[in-house]
Amino acid sequence: MNLNLAKMNLGKMNLPKVNFAKEFKRGIWDENAVLKLGLGLCPSLATSSSVENAVGMGLAATFVLVCSNVVISCLRKVIPSKVRIPAFIVIIASFVTIVDLVMQAYLPALHKSLGIFIPLIVVNCIILGRAEAYASKNPAYESMIDGVVMGIGFMAALVAIATVREVLGNGTFFNLPLFGAGYVPMLIMIMAPGAFLAIAFLLAGMNQVSKK
Amino acid sequence: MKDIGRLALVLTLVTAVSALLLALVELVTRDAIAHQRELVTLNALQSVLPPADNEPNKDTVALPVKDSKGNDVETVFYRGRKDGKISGIAFETVAPDGYSGNIKIMVGIDAEGKVTGISILQHAETPGLGAKAADASWTDQFKGKGLGDAKWSVKKDGGDFDQITAATITPRAIVGAIRRGLEFFKANQAAIVGG
């Protein structure tokens, strides 16, 4: 009975089969944009000083990535390859501007703390990278999944970096104090050098685990 | 080059559709964004001004104030009134000499020129060090102080105001900016209160 229902649903939606577990592992671990591919390091350094900013930046970038992947995939046969890069950038910039405006209107506090980094999602190489390497060659549904898993991978990396930095550098996690008043924060961790240190240790850890 | 027409057409279509979409989103969010900006100003005004029964953000006078480079910059003075009489004035002052970029400060003063409150509107100071200057525990020390009530510099420079451990530049810049604001107010009191 349950099996039949599942078959029916699958038949109705007519979607290609995607191994979600494998896809998520690909986005978060095997091809993690920041920690494996080394893409998008600039926003990762800049917006990972608190977990709140990291989640905000991660969600904004994921939204842009999913939307731009779907649109670019739908237009992949229409856009001639000679003008694909300007066309991709226009599409990406439009979604970024939408995020920017909506955030200004409804999430002003987050917009204030992410500041200049929202418009800079346009030149985040993860987004153009996925458009070029994946969405321009694959159908819309697969591209959407790719956008979701790569976006979540980006957010996971940001949150991991931000957790290290916020806990050590400010003694808080998601703005909640963790230690007593006697804790002296390691200020360097929430400044720029702390971002490099946190990324370096996470990278080293990941490489060690992946090493067979 | 025979396909140049097609290239141009596709790019034009992509940009035109994007422009249309953005125009729609802008239309939908315009009022909300304007409202948020107004709220930010209003909140800052309420936190620095003594109680008022008018709308200080609508009762304003703009005067040219010299900035650090000697250029005239239009500065808005917000007037809080109680029973029609001016209870306080608020204005924005900029400290150009912070540790990292300009610091924008909203300063509220009463009719005698004594500070009723300050609020740091915008800064990019070091988190955990200079950024502590935005905390109420530091900004509260200005309350009740006028030009004649204190030496307007940080203690390190022989003044009356606390600096912040490991961050002297930020407090020095802010104290200086408030002092300049108060001096401007004193010199132009008639124009600000009367106009």
Largest sheet of chain A: 2 strands, antiparallel
Looking across the biggest beta sheet of chain A, what order are the strands in? 1-2
Pattern of helices and strands of chain B: HEEEEEHHH
* Discrete helix count of chain A: 9
Give the tally of β-strands of chain A.
2
Widest β-sheet, arrangement of strands of chain B: 1-2-3-4-5
Gyration radius of chain B, rounded: 22 Å
Taken from the alpha-carbon principal axes, the silhouette of chain B is extended
| Greatest chain-chain contact | A-B, 27 and 22 residues
For the record, the count of structural domains of chain A works out to: 1
- Strand proportion of chain A: under 5%
What's the number of domains of chain B? 1
Which residues of chain B sit in consecutive blocks of at least 5 with pLDDT less than 50? Answer: none
How do the strands and helices of this protein lay out in sequence?
The complex is a heterodimer of chains A (212) and B (195).
Chain A: H1 2-13, H2 20-30, H3 41-46, H4 51-74, H5 84-106, H6 108-114, H7 125-135, H8 140-170, E1 172-173, E2 176-177, H9 192-210
Antiparallel strand pairs in A: 1-2
Helix pairs in contact in A: 2-8, 4-5, 4-7, 4-8, 5-6, 5-7, 7-8, 8-9
Chain B: H1 4-48, E1 60-66, E2 72-82, E3 85-95, E4 103-110, E5 115-122, H2 136-139, H3 169-187, H4 189-194
